[in-house]
Amino acid sequence: MLASGFRIDFASVRVSRMCFVAVIAVGIGCPATASDEASRLRLLRDELVPLLRTYCFDCHGETDGEGDVSLAADATPDAVVANREIWNRALTQVQLGSMPPADGDLMDAATRARMVALIDEVANAINCVRHPNAGKVAMRRLNRIEYRNTIRDLTGVDYAPAADFPGDDVGYGFDNIGDVLSLPPVLMEKYLKAAEAITGTAIYTSPPPRLFELDRDPASLIGAEKHHGKRDLTIASNATVTLSTKIPFAGEFKVTVVASGDQGGNEPVKLQIQSSGQTHLIEVPETDPAEKIISFRLGKGKRTIDIAFVNDAYVPGRIDRNLHLHHVSIRGVERQSKFASQPRLPDSHRKIIFQRPDGSRSAIQATKAVMGRFASRAFRRPIQKGELERLGRLAQSVRDQGGTFEESIQVAMQAVLVSPHFLFRIERPRTIHDDGSMPLISQYELATRIAYFLWSSMPDDELLLMAHQRQLRDRGKLLDKVARMIRDPRSSQLVDNFASQWLQLRNLDIVEPDTRIYRSFNDEIREAMRIETLMFFSEVMKRNLPVTRLIDADFTYLNESLATFYGINDVRGDQFRLVRLNDSPRGGLLTHASVLTVTSNPTRTSPVKRGKWILDNLLNAPPPPAPPNVPELDKGQLVGTLRERMKQHRDNPACAACHNMMDPLGFALENFDAVGRWRTRDAGAKIDPSGSMPDGTTFSGVDDLRELLAGRRRSQFVRALAEKMLTYALGRGTEYYDKCAIDDIVAKVHAKDDRFAYLIAAIIESDPFQKQGTRE
After folding, report:
1. With left for phi above 0 and alpha for psi between -120 and 50, is residue 671 left, alpha or beta?
2. Which of 4, 305, 636, 637 could link 631 by a cystine bridge, Cβ 3.0 to 4.6 Å?
3. Position 354 pLDDT exceeds 50
């Protein structure tokens, strides 16, 4: 079963290769697969070059290529492949309709689609049968979110990295990309401190016994004023001095007296120490200071210790026996009564330390059992014998220094938590097979990929057991497990991390709409916007709805505050609930205030940002960066309505190419203001949400735009979502050689009515997810 109430069965799915065509390609067949050099040479020479000569070579010839793009210079398929980056830039420009320029030859939609398909076939040719490449994921550390989730699932401690933890860099739109997740020294220091804090919370250790210590100078004792000395005290006749103090607990105490004597007669200096009815007589035969230690059993409360010189002797001119006191101290340690109640151990403690030394096992045996299980879970694979031996020796060294068993486990755990095998997702390098096929990653590595994809955390015990039993490539068992993982609350991490970054919801934290204009916007509404989109995405995923429902759904999640903000009635209370949008212009992500706000400026909407957001995130066809020295729309001599100013902006040839693609998409959303509220007029003028694309497609308003993306452009949206999610799942950007896998994924999803769970399953079953290739 996969997700609630449905079953996945790919046995009946016939996978067909999808043609990798442009965003604007409509109804055009793909060129024949270039299976060998001769075929690709024919495509280049006989089909692509004539089109390039007509539309491109005037500006991008062999020697005078504008923008350093000289397409005529590459006369063979190998030359095209060697300059793939340039050709893919050209492909993007043709896709977007920015080339040929407006003042060039007019290219109809069919010809444009044909050129895109031909460029892609020659520049990105991949033999998906004989030489597929699964790609290779860089060894990468856990990002902040993965680290926190993994610590929680491993130890039971919810440890939130402090604000001074270095942030995670972003690549390809996500913060889990291996190529940018470095480990600076300052972060290693944070991990060391975190390991101490985490183990201190996870494992209970008895508090150190209470210690009582008191040091006194003899001159400060009661009765010392009768004798000589400022610090050292000389007692020249039989006399007593007293130390008085308050003892905080009953127990055994050591009284230390540092003393010496002026010897005389036939016996050494003697002193008597008395307290609580206990008397000790001590000889002090030394003439230099020496320690004398006496034990007393003292009760709690005020106590006195009397120190007496008891054998004074004086014969004028011959004998003068005296006592010198140099220092007095008391030390005592409170001992725990064996009848005292033991504290309740935290769940984390009982889970980790499931064995202790007792009559049937030694401390060494118990350590190996505890650390063997803990480290295997932390490393996401069985611990090796040598690794376990080293952890055992580390724990033993703690016990040798007087530490308890629990303290020794804490130190061994800390070593695990700062190990590269925990902090990094390490996959063993493999060699490509002699026949060119790509090797499978191990079952444990596959379990790790699945868990961090769906949960942003470590595999659970069931997933690790399936890996141990080599069941993760049993399709039925794998898909059943994936279905249960999607239903598990931990799958909310896929929503929070993938959806938030894909849709750029994290930018909600930094956008600042002008509240003098948009007075109903506040931080409560900001957070409600975020919750609406995440709950909506989760609903589509967990109910296994078609992914196109993200675009054209007739429901959303609202509470009273956000419903009022939208102008929707009959929603009461702070709790978010599913709301049907029967008579509302809203529906799908395009009408969510979260998306509309992050794609606006503080004081007005931005058709450019909204159009670019659609191209980037829903069609995976980002426009090229803006050329330098182009003035912003709100500056300069541009006048009139927003649409009029945009038209003047597009009159600049450097701007027109990209804006002809972005602006119509953005203007279709112009009925929503800069914080996502519906409107029909702007600055007193009726809003015109109509537009046309470079390929001739026309639409008017958000309804037509939804129909375009979820209907006529359904395959392009599904492919874009598949590629974005594959990037997130792998932790690397997709490359030209991932075309084969993406074709398969899209075909499998289409065969199952584009339902969400089949997208997840197809990604997990794909070659890039299951195998290890190269980065070439």
Report:
1. alpha
2. 636
3. yes
